[in-house]
Amino acid sequence: MNDSELHDxxxxxxxxxxxxxxxxxxxxxxxxxxxxxxAGLASAAAAVVVxxxxxxxxxxxxxxxxxxxxxxxxPTNVPSEVEAVTPPLWDPxxxxxxxxxxxxxxxxxxxxxxxxxxxxxxxxxxxxxxxxEGRLLRLLGTDGEWRSVPGTSNAIADxxxxxxDPAISHDxxxxxxSVDSGILVVDVxxxxxxxxxxxxxxxxxxxxxxxxxxxxxxxxxVVLYGTDTWQIGLDxxxxxxPYGDSYPYLAIEPGGAVYQNDYxxxxxxxxQGDVRVDDSPFPQCERLVAAQGMVACTTGSIEPxxxxxxVVDAASGEVLGYAPIKDKSAVYSDNGHLTAMGFLDADTxxxxxxxxxxxxxxxxxxxxxxxxxxxxxxxxxxxxxxxQGLRTIEVAPAxxx
Length: 401
Fold this sequence. Notes:
Elements: H1 3-13, H2 22-33, H3 41-53, E1 126-130, E2 137-141, E3 146-149, E4 167-168, E5 174-179, E6 182-187, E7 192-197, E8 212-214, E9 220-225, E10 228-233, E11 238-240, E12 250-252, E13 258-262, E14 267-272, E15 275-281, E16 285-291, E17 294-299, E18 306-313, E19 319-322, E20 325-326, E21 338-345, E22 348-353, E23 367-374, E24 379-387, E25 394-395
Antiparallel strand pairs: 1-2, 1-25, 2-3, 4-5, 5-6, 6-7, 8-9, 9-10, 10-11, 12-13, 13-14, 14-15, 16-17, 17-18, 18-19, 18-20, 21-22, 22-23, 23-24
Helix pairs in contact: 1-2, 2-3
């Protein structure tokens, strides 16, 4: 059974479920959970469905009291002695009418089919990376020019979704991704690439490529391997990381801490190096990003039948911003149509949003938008828009403006 046939089977199996996008998102979500190949495609397909339905079933193993901590309180713009109120609902379908925020990105993302190689024509920095099956990885520079990365269309073999998963360095000068032979690191400023071989303990083959996060100092990677994590330096030094419970429950602050979402216990664990330095209340959410002591993510736990982006103070657990969306079908939470990409500044989160109505739209229909969310005031601005396939992009938030 090939990937297309597997997708069709999953789609038919879930066509009567309230979230019809579940089949497609199950493939993507299971890839990010990257179970190592231990059985054939049949057992892998079962793991995909289970991984999509049983969200947040893993326990990190950290020591806690018998009763989980309560979720953080909702934000409020009124004095503390007045009862906090839930912010008004946000409708993602209003994005096309939003005011446009100036950035280095074009208002309409239209990547070319065959841009020049970045090895032949380097760029000053990459602000966006676009992976697509059967195509070379395409990079958009801060100068508005597109480049491609040679060899990336077939760098992953025998996978349920053979597409590279790029990670752009904090300064945009390097782009890294898992490939069969190791970590491919491309210096986009020098037009050079190299492979950091996998350590024997985590070498493939796998059902899905191993996702990467750049370490806080940018001198290596956190590699997400099942429910464990590894640290691999640019020099090839590799060892297990002290934190587990990997994607989508880790966030790395550039130049700062590593944050681990202990999902079941609603706690946020803060790590400095190999030492856990803090433990605070945290909502059940995933796809985390972090900056300046704050963590942003997509939550579906604060209110029934609501999801939306949320920003939490990492030290106290205080909710600094929340934009609830009516989401009975879990389109924006479990099915991934809303993801925080990073912080543009201390008051603004960059969101990747693909508005979806499971009752009236087909899978893949509609557009994808990059949106600036001023989480302290609740204001939104549109940055750039493109087709649904752009939901897989990676962005360097520090370079967007």
